[in-house]
Specification:
- This protein is mostly beta strands.
- About 0% of the residues lie in helices and about 50% in strands.
- It is built from no helices and eleven strands.
- A hairpin with a 5-residue loop joins strand 4 and strand 5.
- The chain is globular and about 40 Å long.
């Protein structure tokens, strides 16, 4: 079974930064995407960013462009989401997910495996 474990969430002030990590294991896909999604209380799950392995192609939701950066460390089988200039609107539970069926998608239904999530709270 694919295992995805998020870490790095916490409480940060407006304008601050956090780096989320997604440790992936339990699969041997040659070509796949890892995506980051978020869900605020009472709202649906929103695609934030994704990265394709092995080519490194990335995609971002418009509201985070220029502030968030997705990257990977293949030696550690880990994908990161560097979040800068954080806003209260970024407050949510952040999930990482994996799809082997799609590339460049920020649609949650396209993803097959999910982590447990990590809470990000941005204080005003």
């Amino acid at each position: 079974e694919v295992q995805l474990v998020e870490s790095g969430g916490g409480l940060v002030q407006v304008g601050g930064s956090l780096r989320l990590s997604c440790a992936a294991s339990g699969f041997t896909f040659d070509d796949y995407d890892i995506g980051w999604f978020r869900q605020a209380p009472g709202k649906g799950r929103e695609g934030v960013s994704c990265i394709n392995r092995p080519d490194g192609r990335t995609a971002y939701e418009d509201s985070v462009k220029g502030r968030f950066t997705i990257s990977s460390d293949d030696a550690k089988n880990t994908v990161y989401l560097q979040m800068n200039s954080l806003k209260p609107e970024d407050t949510a539970v952040y999930y990482c997910a994996l799809t082997w069926r799609y590339s460049g998608s920020l649609v949650s239904e396209d993803y097959d495996y999910w982590g447990q999530g990590t809470q990000v709270t941005v204080s005003s």
